[in-house]
Amino acid sequence: MAIVANLWNRIIEWFEDRQSRTKLVRSFNSSAKEAFVQGIVPVMMEASIVKGDPKYRHRFSKVFEGSGFRIKAYAGRQLTKNDIVNIGATILSNEILVRRLVVLGWDTLQIHCDVGNYGCQWQLHDYIMIGQNGE
Questions:
Q1: What 8-state DSSP symbol labels residue 94?
Q2: What value, to the nearest 5°, has the Cα angle with vertex 114 and ends 111 and 116?
Q3: Nearest to residue 68, comparing CAs of 25, 113, 34?
Q4: Is residue 134 part of a domain?
Q5: Which end of the chain has fewer CB atoms surrounding its CB within 10 Å, N or C?
């Protein structure tokens, strides 16, 4: 009976995590659209779940569900590396968002634009400051 209960708990946890991941992506996309419409950001951004970098895996990585959090910036032109790094830095500076991404199973942040093949990626675990006291 304990085996069945344990299996059931894992199934419930899997569905809750999946729902939370989907909700976060939808929320990000909704906020990004609104920020673009209001002129707060100069490019339209859209998040999606993709395959993460296997070198970045951590204890919570959701390998089979996609451990990469990709943001595509729709600028209508090739963004410079500096532009892409600035978008990444903005995301990574939000420690609550990054911790939420890690807890929900993402290990890789990817930023790409809609023109060209260039993009950047970061290991999310490096930005959550586990064990640091803010000094």
A1: -
A2: 90
A3: 25
A4: no
A5: C
**The two structure tokens encoding residue 36:** 């673009």
| Domain-embedded: residue 135 | no
Tell me how far apart the alpha carbons of residues 81 and 51 are, in angstroms, rounded to a whole number: 22
Number of domains the chain contains:
1
Residues 59-90: tens digit of each pLDDT = 889 888 899 999 999 998 999 999 999 999 99
Instruction: Compute φ and ψ for 4, nearest 5 degrees.
Output: -65, -45
Residue 108 near residue 124 (C-beta atoms within 8 A)? yes
d(CA 50, CA 67): 6
Domain of 24 in residue numbering reads as: 2-127
Q: What's the rounded Cα separation, in Å, for the pair 78 and 8?
A: 48
Q: Tokens 């199934």 appear where?
A: 11
